[in-house]
Amino acid sequence: MPFAIRMHRTGGPDVMCWEELEVAEPAPGEARVRHQAVGLNYIDIYHRSGLYPLQLPNGLGLEAAGVVEAVGAGVSELRPGDRVAYAGGPVGAYSQVRCLPADRLLKLPDAIDFRTAAAMMLQGLTSAYLLRRTYRVQAGDSVLIHAAAGGVGLIACQWAKALGATVIGTVSTAAKAALAAAHGCDHVIDYTREDFARRVREITVGEGVAVVYDGVGKDTFAGSLDSLRTCGMLVSFGNASGPVPPFDPLLLSQKGSLFLTRPTLMHYTAKREDLLALGAQLFDVVGSGQVKIEVHQTYPLAEVAQAHRDLEARKHSGSTILLP
């Protein structure tokens, strides 16, 4: 029987167990997929720790790429042998084989291999909805992207640059600054050495940016608001440093009639047609070479606990994959 990572309680990396798991035939509307590569994302840590509660026991992981082995009744878009990838759930991607709803799967173009797909689906679809739906970046916009050397950051910076934006990114080390600069950032700010909000004002000659994409959360929230132009938008899409504490919405008017949104990929891809549209945009920018996907870390799936420790310690840059 195939193996999978299972979690029976929330907590640290050690709560993840490598267990043998029977996989049934796909039910109506499902497909059984044998994974070739699995993506690692910070939301996996939120699920493991209990910040985002799951019904237990359960699996982990929201993103993978592989080959369809079988399809259930009523599935017409897929057939055995198709190369597919997915992101966004249901959880359980940390596995060798699994069944999941067929309408969550996207067929992979021939030019995109399994490892690239597993490294880009969640982060790439996130970048797609952030840049093309939540705030539609236009040529001439100035944008601020936190964690610019992270998985989402490297994709979003390249994509925003391709759209004609002036891209400002924040990082925590000189090595990450060099990485961000090589992937679309016009200006890179080391937030450990500089006040990033003040520096953003200098770069934009006092105006501020049209949008801030903030996946860091608590540590950057106040500075992100201070980086925005009048009527700018803060897109808070993650909590890498912890949840944003409660605040008075009056603050948004005091700082320039600002907009604040807390989006999720799940809502932006709930409809099949929206998932297909975002997937097509992602495959297009990757296939055209405008966005390059680089796998910087690889771990055996059975050793995912160490991958989680390294991710929480901010040792990672770019994308990480797990090999079943």
Structural description of this entry:
The chain is α/β, with parallel strands linked by helices and 324 residues long. The chain has 2 domains: 177 residues, Medium-chain alcohol dehydrogenases, catalytic domain (Quinone Oxidoreductase, Chain A, domain 1, Alpha-Beta Complex); 124 residues, 3-Layer(aba) Sandwich (Rossmann fold). It is built from 10 helices and 16 strands. The strands form 3 sheets. Strands 3, 5, 6, 7, 8, 15 and 16 form a 7-stranded mixed sheet that branches. The longest helix is centred in the middle third of the chain and has 21 residues. Keywords: NADP, Oxidoreductase. It comes from Candidatus Accumulibacter contiguus.
Main attributes of the structure:
324 residues; 10 helices; 7-stranded mixed beta sheet; Rossmann fold; alpha/beta
Brief summary of the model shown:
The protein is of the alpha/beta class and 324 residues long. It is 30% helix and 27% strand. Pfam families: ADH_N, ADH_zinc_N.
CATH architectural name of the largest domain: Alpha-Beta Complex
Q: Please indicate the count of domains.
A: 2
- Give the overall form: globular
By CATH, the topology of the largest domain is: Quinone Oxidoreductase, Chain A, domain 1
Count of strand segments = 16
| Low-confidence segments | none
Average residue pLDDT:
95
Radius of gyration, CA atoms, in whole angstroms: 20 Å
**Strand percentage, roughly?**
25-35%
Number of helices: 10
Domain Enoyl reductase (ER): 11-322
InterPro entries: ADH-like_C (IPR013149), ADH-like_N (IPR013154), ER (IPR020843), GroES-like_sf (IPR011032), NAD(P)-bd_dom_sf (IPR036291), QOR-like (IPR047618), Quin_OxRdtase/zeta-crystal_CS (IPR002364)
Keywords: NADP, Oxidoreductase
Organism: Candidatus Accumulibacter contiguus
